[in-house]
Amino acid sequence: MGKLTYGMNISVDGYTVDGKGELPWAGPDDEVHQFWNNRVRDTAVSLYGRNLYELMSAYWPTADQAPDISPVAAEFARLWRAMPKVVFSKTLESVDWNSRLERGDVVEVARKLKAETDGMMEVAGATLAAPLVRAGLVDEFLVVVTTVAVGGGTPFFPALEKWVKLELVENRTFPSGQVLLRYVPVD
User: What is the mean pLDDT of residues 9-31?
Assistant: First the structure.
């Protein structure tokens, strides 16, 4: 059975993007980027919503060809292209870069994928993660807290009908001051 993870860089006040829907503040340093590269390398399948997929696919498919790209970012581009992706959208006509299009209910599809997948799965993006968090399907939460407060935007955690009790299983401070917090839900 697959293990569904949800992780992102967030502002210190808990947002994945600011009030304008932007995240220029979230760019990781090389060590944080390498942490995410290692996660992508170990991901059996990643779940994307249309918005994040379009954002990622506009840059990463050819990013490693840029002359000024860092080695760690070039590695991420190669890993991202190769990683199997399921993209949830009712409006996209097609997807590329080792992706398949899914029009079904994200909770139902995620349950099926967890049953069929060996290894780590990830859900990418707060909007797509929200129904999965509410349904109790997320097995691990990772946040890399950045050193900026943005004052509003899209929160990492959605509004919840009931509390999700978490146990801290890892914490790590990067030289940049960014902090990794890894949690698992507990009953």
Answer: 87
